[in-house]
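tl;dr need the bound structure. longer version: we got a ligand (zinc ion) that a collaborator sent over and nobodys looked at where it sits. i said id run it. heres the input, straight from their email, havent touched it
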Amino acid sequence: MPKRLGSKAMPTVMTIPVLRDNFVYLLIEGERAICIDAGEAGPVIAAIRDHKLTLDAILITHTHYDHIDGLTALHDQHPCPIMGPSDLDHPATIRHINDDTELVIDGATLQAIKTPGHCPHHFAYHTESILFSGDVLLTGACGRILGGTPSQLWQSLNRLMHLPADTKVYCGHEYTEDNLRFALSILPDDPAITQQLANIQARLSQGDPSGPVRLDDEIRTNIFLRSGNADVAQALNMANADAEQVFIELRRRKDHW
Ligand SMILES: [Zn+2]
């Protein structure tokens, strides 16, 4: 598991809502910050200014416009190294990531985890008990398949599921309530999902984002992560199917929901 070098302090995460329903995150330790994704620059620049932070790096999960549209403007204000997948096209990119990679940034260590499926080139970033899951693992569901394959997406989710149970998941979009409603359309009486929907609605009604969600809670309440469970297979009339087949059917149904 990645360890933080030179410091015992736990980093904190600032969640910055951008665009219609995207998130940018700042991983903060003291006055230093690492930015994850850059769908829009203005709110991120304001947060950096208001909290008197210095930006050490920008990490990109994937190159869909709603994750990189603010990159140039943010970098112009805060020149710093940019790291991201191999299809990231920005002249200040110091590292194109092709495979699992340990990133050491001013003493902070993050693990880039190769997670294709939503799109062909996607990375999640993990440090301490924090996971930035981009659009692969969305709280309550997973991303659509936009260039990757269902099998890749299932494998990627399985990798993330094996991180420590207390990992806090910070994902790319605020879709959680809708995702849980979809899950209840398949498993209407599921107590864990019903309770999670109530929890999330309470947070949203306070004006807070739905995340982060602990990974073990996510594994109990995200129907896509439960594709290997008998109750989900049964609900889809796929009792003899394997987990990946069940996952693919769930993804197909969600696309048409
Ligand atoms: Zn995306």
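gonna send this back to them w/ a short note. The mean pLDDT is 96.
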